[in-house]
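Today's session is about reading a structure prediction critically. Students often jump straight to the picture, but the first step is always the sequence itself: look for stretches that repeat, for charged clusters, for runs of hydrophobic residues. Only then move on to the predicted structure, which in these notes is written as discrete structure tokens rather than atom positions. Here is the chain we will use throughout the hour.
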Amino acid sequence: MARYDFDLFVLGAGSGGVRASRVAASYGARVAVAEERYLGGTCVNVGCIPKKLFVYASEVGSDCDDGAGFGWTVGGRRFDWRTLIANKDREIGRLNGVYRRMLEGSGVTIIEKHATLIDAHTVAIGGDRYTAEYILIATGSWPTVPETPGAQHAITSNEAFHLERLPGRVIVVGGGYIAVEFAGIFHGLGASVIELYHGPLFLRGFDDDARRAVADEMVRHGIDLRFNADVKRIEKTQAGIVATLNDGSTLEADLIMYATGRHPHTRGIGLEAAGVKLAADGAVIVDEYSRTSTPNIYAIGDCTNRVMLTPIAIAEGRAFAETVFNHNPMKIDHEGVPSCVFSQPPLGAVGLTETRARERYQTVDVYRSSFRPLKHTLSGRDERAMMKLVVDQASQRVVGCHMVGPEAGEIIQGFAVALKCGATKAQFDATIAIHPTAAEEFVTMREKV
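Below is the predicted structure for this chain, in token form.
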């Protein structure tokens, strides 16, 4: 008779938890997963997927405007928010079903309720108790809202995907991925947008030239971007929202959205009772194999606050299952992870920023190019692209690749492979360009900055 009810019990059916569950089950493990909200987690339901769909929607108007320069006459057009929401919900529902079928097809038991750890091997769900040899924490992250007076009148990205109507005036507070992306989304759909960030320049962690390029383009597009500005108080009025800023000025809007970061979603699941140690920010502390301070309990994804990206959670989920259930120790390299901010235009990056490269290497070479994309020579749109390479001078390895411009994410993904392989500047130079493309700029830059 089996000692435990399951070989593996997973808390959270997001991207990481689902991947870990399926891979573990493929190796013969008896697996259960508990999810109290929605299959697919943040990414599928209130993150990457619906956000990218909203980005596409917000770009249609400018695409129509661009058509005139190419000889197209576009008739009257009108955007309907409820149609977008209904179509988005239908697609998310389809994906929820895909995740369910994947888990069930792998033989994983799905329990759609809140789970709490009683001890290192026991999970409580309502009045039921389940035991497992191994437990995996994959509970993701949750939006962080500052304790600002009146903050209860604001929304987060979670609620932005379910608004009943498109607000006419929006204040977005924050300076990370989500804030920048939603400022572009609301603006592209027709709202008047003000974005506030408490620091001197947003998108902290990205290359400074890229950050400035995004800021310049957002202002050029018509977004009211304000740095060194923060909200001190929010009041609800009959006309909407009034936000009082740190300089004493006030702003009126129909909606205020906080996009001020996310924190590990680890409260209320009994980690302390199981002896799992947490960092000050609530993140589960793990080693390079995702093992916690309790030997049979592991944690992956956003709840560990290593790199909060869906592909990282998926990779960590697979590595966990390989390590524990296939006797194939696997750890994830969190260096050189490519990323993209779906701003308008988007920012893509892989490797080191110029600042980080100068800290790590004795001397670096920098190549940078700024130009007007070919499309806009006829569209008439006043928009520029920026591309940048950072090179370790001693080895001539390309250690950073940064872009602001159309299809930045698609382009940077390919160059991420080159950086992972240790490509040198000479190898970039020896690569024949595809012309005319924006991407060719990365293999034709010759003059150092």
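Discussion point for the tutorial: The radius of gyration is 24 Å.
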